[in-house]
Amino acid sequence: MIRLAIVGTNWITDQFIEAALKTQKYQLVGVYSRSLDKAREFAEKYGSLALYDDFDAFAKCSSIDAVYIASPNSLHAPQATKLLESGKHVICEKPLAANDTLAKKMYRTALDNEVVLFEAFMSPHTPNFKLLKQHSSKLGKLRKAFITYCQYSSRYPRYLAGEMPNTFNPKFANGSVMDIGYYCVGSAVELFGEPLSVKAHAQLLDSGVDGSGSIILGYDGFEVVLQHSKTSDSYLPSEIQGEEGALLMEMIATGKKLTKITQGSVGIDLTVKQDPNPMYYEALAFADQYAQNQIDEACMKRSLIVAKLLTEIRRQTGVKFPTDGE
């Protein structure tokens, strides 16, 4: 049983805890928050847990095996690094870090301390995404792909009203491509590997982060177009086109529905039943790496490529973070 503690007391933390406990491989033992009252309020629904507002003491606690980090993006690297140095295994929400230099440092720290660092990118672990990857090799020569995730942010009205929620604040290494746009970039890398070229455009908000954007990833013989936005909704599926057919996936982040269409066909539904909580599968994947006490090399490679691409995309679009100097 993995003795799990968490950093971050928001809805996504609740979702991961639900998924982790459902696997029956985890025991929730502690909560860290800068506010002890906030930690206590969050922990109430989970019974008796250890509460922490001192991060150094939290990192050194011997009754914790692994920590799930869901704090603002800019805090991922310093928090994960301290935990890894203290011998804790870490599940860190995507994006792993604010830039690729920090991501590389995090993995070096994990390897040096012989602990697991796992980026909580749920998509590749879901059954329907695995089917998407499997069937993409059966479309003949690939020619084009379109991956989309556009969702009007519930925090955008607050931003328009003059507030500065974290999701639109460069101080916290945020913005569209670092949030839901990550699913587009990460999915492309998982499916097709590292691209030969990248061209990015974005619509920047006055705060300095991107509200939406488009990216073209160039591969040998085909290209992948990515579309992401936190200021508008899209209802289009993602699509992979080959010379012998196409695959369509609704909500690629969670693998909602997968359809294969060949010339002259009406489409075949390839969707398999999944757990309603898509984080269930990443919780299982981390538990496997924890049991082996070994980082999955393919996951690490993908995370580092994505961190490199996100850094380059921001360079091209002019999105700068205070952490870029680190």
TrEMBL record:
GO molecular function, one term: 1,5-anhydro-D-fructose reductase (1,5-anhydro-D-mannitol-forming) activity
Keyword Oxidoreductase carried by entry: yes
Key words, A-Z: Oxidoreductase, Plasmid
A Pfam family it matches: GFO_IDH_MocA
Domain Gfo/Idh/MocA-like oxidoreductase N-terminal span(s) in chain numbering: 2-119
Gene3D superfamilies found in the cross-reference section: Dihydrodipicolinate Reductase, domain 2, NAD(P)-binding Rossmann-like Domain
The EC number(s) this enzyme carries: 1.1.1.292
InterPro entries: Gfo/Idh/MocA-like_OxRdtase_N (IPR000683), GFO_IDH_MocA-like_dom (IPR055170), NAD(P)-bd_dom_sf (IPR036291)
Domain GFO/IDH/MocA-like oxidoreductase: 136-247
Domain of life, per lineage: Bacteria
Protein name: 1,5-anhydro-D-fructose reductase
Gene that specifies this protein: afr2
